[in-house]
Amino acid sequence: MIKRELDEKLIQQLKDKMLEGLLPQWVITDPDIYELEKEKVFGKTWQFLGHETELKETGSYVTRWMVNDPILLVKDSKKQIKAYLNSCTHRGTQLCTADRGKKKTFTCPYHGWSYNLDGKLVGIVAGNKVYGEEMCKDEWGLREIPRLENYRGMIFGCLDPHAETLEDYLGEMKWYFDMMLGRSDGGMEVIGLPQRWVAKANWKSTAENFAADPYHVQTTHRSTVEMGISPEDPLYAGYGHQVVMKNAHGINVITSKTGRSRSEFQGMPQSMWPMFQRNLTLEQADILERVTVFVGGVYPNLSFVSPIHGTEGHLHNYLNFRVWRPLGPDKVEVWCWFMIDKAAPEEYKADAYRGYLGSFGPTGTLEQDDTETWARIVEVSGASMMRDKELNYNNVSNYLMGFSHVKQDETFPGPGVAYPTTYCDALSRRMHEHWLDLLTANNSVKEESK
Ligand code: FES
Ligand SMILES: [Fe+2]
Fold first, then answer.
1. 18 by DSSP, 3-state: which?
2. Ligand 1 in reach of 91 Cβ (< 6 A)
3. Contact indicator for 371, 199 with CB cutoff of 8 Å
4. Residues in domain Rieske (predicted)?
5. Residue 45 — φ and ψ, nearest 5°?
6. What are the start-end ranges of the H helices in 362-443?
7. Among residues of the chain, what percentage have pLDDT more than 90?
């Protein structure tokens, strides 16, 4: 029997600190905490796997990961998308090693067992001679993950059979996804493969950086100010709202000092604006018209950013989804999808893709800036002296009356709890509190077979 939980005294200490807006620094990279996160955070929550436009035809497949669980996403013979464990049922080797492709059957490289698109074991090399007539192939098909659901083309998986539905899990975030993913007839499409690379970072820091921290923009990305791309005003990424939602999801709706964007509808072609207005509610269309950047996250490890890039006359917008796949307490594999409205002109899509590569792609300038700071966080947070040091998360007043100045804005039209600035700790704090709730849920001794 192995006890795998935080002890009660430690939980109380963490809760007390969080109430004060403090995060003990050691929790970021602690190896035991990481082991618990795999089971209690990533084993219980919905994780993004891909977009339906990546699987266009019967037999199309992509291979993905949910932390260390290998996933084979396939469009089956009935054109349904299935998520199998990408592991042969014979001796367990990884079945499909390609990133993507199209097949009628998947044949294991080890002893040659083969499976059809519906996951059935259909071929065993020298089957009758090796296993006899009584071998029941039906019992040895591919194993599906417990849950697979789709919202507006976004495919999510969950390893907990008892989890709430994806729609319930997303909750208020659906309203914001509808605005980004549902503004155009035909929705969004993924262009190219998701790019991926490994970064020295902890997943909590990367998720927080994207979902909850526009405050870093004016310093970390200072070079954009010096190049004249961003304004001198240090508050420039703080104008707008930060919205905190159920399950610690959140979004920053960044506008500008005037509350307007530098370009209506994020620089999308004017010919598309009536379509956006037709597909959205008045409130959604108003926000989309005024926003400069949407940046946010679905807890635990999906982040997204929808920015404006380019110079006057050549502005473009796209949607970047990214998954922070933990590879350890101090390492993430970044998976980065470029998405754009199917209905956009082809030339516009190509321009936007070039803009993405130069900014948030693996070699993009903004990406390099962030990667450097994430590495420095893990570099120092495991140090001996950090066991009793805390980090500051307390500029939000509804968590601790009178502690600071940022208060809820009840006039914001979208769902969730909105604050009238994105330089705000509300969402970060919610993410940390939720993290602790998950780590301590059903906190009882668990039995594990050895
Ligand atoms: S491990 Fe796949 S056929 Fe043996
Ligand atoms: Fe950044």
1. helix
2. yes
3. yes
4. 46-142
5. -110, 165
6. 365-381, 426-440
7. 76
What is the sign, positive or negative, of the torsion defined by CA atoms of 122, 126, 130, 134? positive
- Ligand 1 atom index nearest CA of 109: 2
Write the residue with the smallest CA distance to atom 3 of ligand 1.
111
110 lines ligand 1 (CB under 6 A): yes
Pocket test residue of 72, 91, 114 for ligand 1, highest count of atoms within 8 A of CB: 91
- Report d(CA 436, CA 359) in Å as an integer: 33
Query: Ligand 1 pocket test: which of 85, 107, 110, 114 has the largest number of ligand atoms within 8 Å of its C-beta?
Result: 110
Sketch out the chain's domains with CATH numbers: 47-150 (2.102.10.10), 171-438 (3.90.380.10)
Query: What stretches of 68-178 adopt beta strand conformation (E)?
Result: 69-75, 81-85, 100-102, 105-107, 114-116, 121-123, 147-151, 154-158
Q: What is the pLDDT of residue 197?
A: 95
Could you say which ligand is closest to the alpha carbon of residue 123? 1
Residue 303: which H helix or E strand, with range? strand 302-306
115 lines ligand 1 (CB under 6 A): no
CB neighbour list of residue 128: distance below 8 Å, 6 or more residues apart: 135
Ligand 1 pocket, residue 88 CB under 6 Å: yes
Helix%, strand%, coil% for the chain, nearest 5: 35, 25, 40
Q: What is the pLDDT of residues 326-339, one digit of tens each?
A: 999 999 999 999 99
Ligand 1 atom at minimum distance from 113 CA: 3
Q: Is 126 helix (H, G, I), strand (E, B) or coil?
A: coil
80 CB near ligand 1 (under 6 Å): no
CA of residue 220 relative to chain centroid, distance: 21
Regions in the chain scoring below 50 on pLDDT = 1-2, 400-403, 445-450
What is the C-alpha to C-alpha distance for residues 428 and 20, in angstroms, rounded to an integer? 13
Residue of 113, 115, 121, 124 with the most ligand 1 atoms within 8 Å of its CB, for mutation: 113
By the 8 A CB rule, do 73 and 83 touch?
yes
- So what's the pLDDT on residue 362? 82
Q: What is the DSSP code (8-state) at residue 309? A: E
Report pLDDT for 364. Answer: 82
First vs last C-alpha separation in the chain: 8
Q: What separation in Å is there between the alpha carbon of 237 and the centre of ligand 1?
A: 53
Q: Kindly report, residue by residue over 144-174, the tens digit of the pLDDT.
A: 999 999 999 999 999 999 999 999 999 999 9
